[in-house]
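Hi, here's the filled form for the chain we discussed.

Project: internal
Contact: R.S.
Residues: 828
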Amino acid sequence: MISSAIWLLIFLGGALWLAYQRASLKVTTIVYAIALAAYTWLGDAGLAWLTPLWVLLAILVLLNIDDLRMRFISRPFLLTYRRMLPAMSTTEAEALAAGSVWWDGELFSGAPQWDKLMSVPPPQLTPEEQAFLDGPCEELCRMIDEWDIIHRRADMPPQMWDFVKRKGFFAMIIAKRYGGLGFSSYAHSCVLQKLASRSATVSSTVSVPNSLGPGELLSHYGTEEQKNYYLPRLARGEEIPCFALTGPRAGSDAASIPDTGVVCKGMYEGREVVGIKLNFSKRYITLAPIATIVGLAFKLYDPEKLLGGDVTDYGITCALIPRNTPGIRIGRRHFPLNTPFQNGPVQGKDVFVPLDCIIGGAKMAGQGWRMLVEQLSVGRCISLPSNATGAAKAATYASGAYSRIRRQFNVSIGQFEGIQEVLARMAGLTYIMDAARSVTVNAVDAGERPAVPSTILKYHVTEFSRRVANDAMDVQGGKGICLGPKNYLGRSYQSVPIAITVEGANILTRTLMIFGQGAIRCHPFVLKEMNAAREKDKEKAVRDFDAALFAHIGFTISNAVRSLIMALTLARFSNTPDIVATRRYFQHINRFSASFAFAADVAMLSLGGYLKKKETLSGRLGDALSCMYLASTVLKHYENQGRPDVDLPLVEWACRHLLYTGQEQLHGFLRNFPNRFIAGFMRFFIFPRGRSYSAPSDELGATVAASMMSVTDTRARLSDGIYKTNEPNNPLGLLQAALALSDAAEPLERRIRVEGVKTGRISALDLPGQLEQALAIGLISPAEARLLRDYDQKVMELINVDDFDPRELGTHPDTSAANFPIDDLIRE
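And the returned structure, exactly as it came back:
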């Protein structure tokens, strides 16, 4: 007869296996019934022990009877749930409905189906898009003189404005049938990345007409008349657009904007029409100082019901208004952190426009917030991440070369472990940024509208860019802080906080948006439960809530078991793609996915609406979700690039950094959870062995840093897509040329130092003098001396900084020619 201990193991193991495999309630009940019958027949348990086991089976059977379950469990709990459910504004509901659920939903599931991510083809540029990057984009980069733009003009010169308009830089997202370039999102991203590696001012200027604004809103929501009139003019650069959302009293919180539009009758172009009287005050509006058409977000009211319905308060509406409309006043320019892209305030007092100024016409009245959040769900993963990635690639590319050619204490500074640690971090974060950018944008081109991933990118990629910029300044020291034509870091460093403030400060993006939106949109059952709770049909509400609730309960139990088992086994037996080199990282993401999903469910169940106020907790959960998402993109990016073996140290650094960070954020979440008993309960399932994941090792960091300080394929791939052409006015190209010479120059320098200076045969203190003496005693050949002189000249030109007469340090715009021919653009 089988012993009780073995039966206990059978029951326990079976329960764990069923939960791990996510067996349904019906399947679980059948398996349990069979096991209990066998135990009753073959086991040696007494009546006192068998009775509760059979009672449990009876409960399971009753739970399988829909009418009983709904009457005694789901219906009463629905009433409680409705009281727990936090209030949701219309703007919050529309924000939740924006975009689509993609890979983020898989991570929220606790059991990611990797085929969904890995089966997506790698991003590809069309021949036309590649030609644009190699032609006009390269030419525009060659034209850029950042010192002239920022210090002398505080603007791009007229010939650059003419070039960007004429070549279609403002028309990348406009369809070809309207005269635009019709580029893919990936091509759009690559253009911005290249420009950002050269100039924050130029990349910002180009990004705005191609991101959230009139062009995009017209393309998706405009009437045919609006599209046919405006889009060709925007594509040709005859119109310069801006979009005015942010105001001094409400920031970017569209729900709170005080700007109004009242439907009324008024005179327009000599005749009385039904239109809108607008009053508004906006600021921080990019391109506003030179815009010819102003996109505007405002609250629309119709007190006289002239629109023909019973509604008087329509809510947020978007309109397109010519700059020369009476009542509009474009203010003076803002100056965002010494980055003089055109940015300024816009005000309007009693501005009367006809109804057809509403984007999409009168039928789109009140649809403005939906329009904005739907496009933000895509735009957030293109403009800001692309600009940030381009800047980070340039900083890492420059710092790797600088660390090799800059010498201190007779060695390259890159030989110092402190520098290697920083370089590895720069390279690893840049790799993560590029992976997240390319993989997510490629998903957009595949038809996804990834709302939560775009928010993850907005926060983390801009924050990584800030860290990379800080590290680059630390590595290059005085070279980075002394501004002038020779400085290739300072302006990018100054501009980093600009991206961090756009579309709302990063603090709120992290603490409110990533998990706040993800917990509802990405969770497989929470939104269904919420919709059921708001359903007016009582019977349908109970049925829908019952189905979602019990699926949710099973989901939570399964994730608790999956988290426990994978934590105990370090996920060595979880399913992954068949990629040997990176298999363990896929498995670790599986483990953290289950742990995260379990923690999120327990937090939402125990804290309810209070979790919305606990921003530090939701911020940590958002970080855990973000780390898994970013690590997934790293693995997919490595796959997209053909799995180059030499890049594995970089992939390992990126994955280890992200997964370690995710682990620590989960630990911080548990440590600060207000209910300590529940925190301990969660910790048992999430960290039964304690925190077992480690950050990248110093040895790994040194390997990554070495790949950045030599002419390697890894360095070339990491910097792919930035402006690094070797020409006199491009520091990145010149740094690469010097780095290429260092392989031949360093052994010669070492020979001079060891066989000449240390033996006393060479007494000169500077390299030119040492070269002369070394040549004289036959220590080096004339050809070697020429190579070293050329190398030394290149290095000194790169490490030298600018100096100025005091009178040169003010901004002196070129008043002999207008900075921008605005008069030519304003329509009479």
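Let me know if anything looks off before we file it.
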